[in-house]
Design goal:
An 8-stranded mixed beta sheet has the order 2-3-1-4-6-5-7-8, sandwiched between helices. It has a 6-stranded mixed beta sheet with strand order 13-12-9-16-14-15, sandwiched between helices. It is of the alpha+beta class and 573 residues long. β5, α14 and β6 form a beta-alpha-beta unit.
Length: 573
Amino acid sequence: MAQVPQTFFDALAVRTWCGLALETLGRAREEIDAINVYPVADGDTGTNLYLTVESAVAAVEAVFAAHEVGAGVSGKPTLADAAGAMAHGALIGAQGNSGTILAQLLRGMAQVLTADGETPHTDGSGLRAALRHAADSARQAVAHPVEGTVLTVASAAADAAEGAEGDCGAVARAAYEGARTALAATPGQLAVLGRAGVVDAGGRGLVAVLAALVETFTGQTPRPVASSGEQAYVPPGTGTDADARTARGSADQAAAGDDCAAPQAGGPAFEVIYLLEADDASVQRLRSRLDALGDSLVVVGGDGLWNVHVHVDDAGAAVEAGVEAGRPYRIRITHFGLGDVHTTGGGRPPRERVQRAVVAVVPGEGLAGLYSEAGATAVLARPGERPASGELVDAVRRAHAHEVVLLPNDADLRHTAAAAAEQARAEGIRVALIPTRSAVQGIAALAVHEPERRFDEDVVSMTSAAGATRYAEVVVAERESWTMAGICQAGDVLGLVEGDVAVIGSDVTATAESVLDRMLQAGGELVTLVLGDDAPQSVADRLEARVRESYLAVDTVVYRGGRQGALLLIGVE
C-alpha cells in the first residue's frame, strides 16, 4: 500500500517515520552488519540500529494505544507525546555504539520539535533546526569524535538541510542527499574503511533512517545512487543479494589481512552499556573517569536519565563508576572474546559466529565482572528488577554464537529463561538452559565449561557441577512473616538454605556461621562466598577462619558481589 505523505511534523508523522525506519533497517540489517569494521569489527551495527529503533517504535505505539484506550479512537497524542516517546524509547533501548548515537540524534530532534515558543517547529524550518541540533548534540555526546563516521554523515545532513527551502519533504530530501554524499566519502576519511573498501556502517544506517524520513513526507522512496570508491553504496531495501555479498566479502577480506585490522586491535576487551539515573554534575565526572578507563565512550540523555556506552578492560570499574555517579541499571557487559579484533588484530573474519557462548544472569556488579572475565555474556538483575525474556534473548543474540548455554541463576527466572530459550531457538540458535538457582551454582558450572567439547557433553558437565553445588544466602527480613524456622520480624537476619529459611538470628556473622555449619555437615571440598556491598569484610574473614579450623581439606574462595540484594551468598561444592 502506498504511503500517504505527511505535510507537517505531527504525532502521526513521528509514528510513520519510526515505522518506516524500522522496516528499512530490517531490510538492510544484514548488509549493514556485513560492512561493520569500525570502531570494532564485530558485525552488529545493523542489528544494534534495528533494535534501537524497535524500542522507539514500541514506545510510540504505546502512546497511541494509551490515547485510544483513554479517549476513544478519536483521541490523538500530541507531537510532544509522540516525539518524547520516540526519544525515550530509543534511549532506553539503545544498543551498541551506533545505537547510542542514533538515540541522541533522535533526542536532539525531539527537543527542537517539541520546544515551546512563538515559532512553530513542525514545518520545514522546524525540521532544519531539529536536524542541526541533533547533529550537534550527538557530536557533543561522543568523548572523541572521529570524522568519517556517523557523526560526519549527521553533520552533512544538517548542513544540506540548512540550505534547503520549502516544506518538510524538501528539507528531508536535502538532508538525505547530503548524508548520502557524505557517506560515499567516508572511505577517504577513515583509513580502516578505505582499506576495507566499505562505507561507514553507522552512517549507512543513518542514511536508511533519513530515507524513511523522505518517504514519510513525500510518499516516495529515494532513488539509489552509487558512490565512488571500491564499495558502491546501495540504499536500504534496493540492493541485490550480490550487492550484499560484495559488501560482506570486502569487509571479510579486509578483516583477514594484517594491514586491514580494526583500529582498536589490541584494545579493550569489554563493551559496557547501562542506563543511569544521575544529575548532570555527576555525569560530567563520570565522563572523565570512563574516558580514562577506556575508549568509544558515548554518554547520551539528560533530565536525570542517561545511556552510557564504553569499551574497557576493567568492566567492573566501569560499572562501579556508574554506581558512584548515580543508579545504574539494565547493565549489559559483553566480552569481545578470545580471538576477536582486540586480541588478534582482526586475524579472522570478525562477523563469524563463535561456536559456543555462555549467557548468565547475575545479581550484582561484582559478579557481572567476574562472569564477563570468564568469557560469559552477563545480564545484571538488580533486586526487584529481574530481566524480562526480551533482555535475555537480546543477550543471547549479542553472544553471537551458534550454541549458547543459558544460566538463569534464579529459581524465579526459570519460566522467563525458558521463554527466551524458545525464542532464540526459533532464530536458529542452539540453546541449552541449565536450571541454576543461584549465582554460586552458575560459578560452578562456568568453572567446568569447555567450549572445545561436544555441546551435549559440555552441557552435561556444567549441569552436573551446578547440581552438585548446594547454595545458601544471608539476608535481612523486610517484614514480619512465617517461615519454616518460625516467625521472623522486620530487621531479623535470615539464613536461607536451598531457598528455605533455616536460621533466624540477629547477628550477620553468627547467622552465617550457623548456615555454613549446616551446609558442611553433608561434606564439601570448596566453599564460595560472595559478599554484598552491605556485608562487612569481617564476615568473610570469620567464615574463612572457621573453615580452616573446623573443616580440613576444604578450600574457600571469596568474591565481592556489589549491590546484589543478599548480604552473603554461600556455595558448597
